[in-house]
Amino acid sequence: MSYNIYTFAQRSDLNDQADELIEASWSAFMLNDEVANEYYGHLYDWFPSYQFMLTDETDKVMAVGNAIPFYWDGTAEGLPKGWDDVFLQGIEDYRQEKQPNALSALSISIDPQYRGLGLSKQLVTAMKGIAKENGLVHLVAPVRPSLKHKYPLTPMDKYVQWKTTDDAPFDPWVRTHWKLGAKIMQVAPESMLIRGSLTDWEGWTGMKFPESGSYIVPDALVPVQVDVEKDEVVYIEPNIWMQHVL
């Protein structure tokens, strides 16, 4: 299959297709991260050269990659807390006109009908290329393991140690990054915060939450915490920081 890769700076006419694809690629609750709700639009206004699309020969958008540049000192200790924090740092660095030296992946979204074709490798490779083209020296990613939702009660620091029989990372998405040269740096235990009312979460998940406590929600990497008296459901998602060598 032939395809093209364009940045949003090159093909802003495809933005609507890209937005529809992103919305169709994620569970409803994942589209309601508090930081993303406030700032996602700025990715296209302020960082269009770092957002990109993979299209077929008819300009149908097959996949979308989102990333944000920021300044990083190159140490594990200097990494942001996780997905939310690196997003906020990128926004703040831009506002303060601080020169970035690193790119953080935010998401790779693939149209469900094109999954299983190896596009994820092409998208990660494209993101590495975009980082280099813009003079950045680091590429990191707060990786969301693709099978972790099947093991929501397993702590992420244990899950990240699981291996296949040939000593590769157990998780397919972590393994994809690893095969492309990335190394695991550390777990980001509080990478994303998604909070909403019981009504919000019932709408997002199709579940009911009759009493306070922990609930396993489809596609969530860890249980959500429900407080009926406060009318609040909180999901704190762990991710895995990985670094690609450019």
TrEMBL record:
The keyword DNA repair does not apply. Signal peptide: none annotated. Keywords: Transferase. It holds the Pfam family Acetyltransf_1. Residues 21-141 form the N-acetyltransferase domain. CDD domains: NAT_SF. The keyword Transferase applies. GO terms for molecular function: acyltransferase activity, transferring groups other than amino-acyl groups. InterPro entries: Acyl_CoA_acyltransferase (IPR016181), GNAT_dom (IPR000182). This is GNAT family acetyltransferase.
